[in-house]
Design goal:
single chain, alpha+beta, four-stranded mixed sheet, 4 helices, 4 strands, 41% helix, 24% strand
């Protein structure tokens, strides 16, 4: 089972907390690895070496941030070694996000 499938299973477990994750979701001209639209959170699993972000990833992140999303990028190698830590980081970001104001 590859790390993307394992992370997807962990994110689906968060459905019981009220999160509705989407996998391989389209946003504008991009395909996002994982997104929770209500929380405005995007999770990207990056190939390559830690610290070497592709210019296309930078462009995508700018578009997402401008639309109000937070982007968390994890290296696949990091997620393979420490998937529980990756999930803990995601949960922490979700817990720390400001509460959505009630609609009037």
């Amino acid at each position: 089972c590859d790390v993307e499938s394992r992370l997807w299973a962990k994110l689906q477990d968060m459905d019981t907390l009220g999160y509705q994750w989407r996998h391989r979701a389209h946003f504008k001209s991009f395909t996002l690895d994982f997104v929770e639209h209500e929380a405005l959170l995007v999770i990207e699993l990056a190939d390559g070496e830690p610290g070497r972000v592709q210019s296309s990833d930078v462009t995508r992140e700018k578009v997402l941030v401008a639309a109000g999303y937070t982007v968390l990028r994890f290296w696949k190698s990091e997620a393979e070694r420490n998937l529980d830590d990756v999930v803990a980081d995601i949960r922490q970001v979700l817990e720390d996000r400001p509460a959505t104001p009630p609609s009037v």
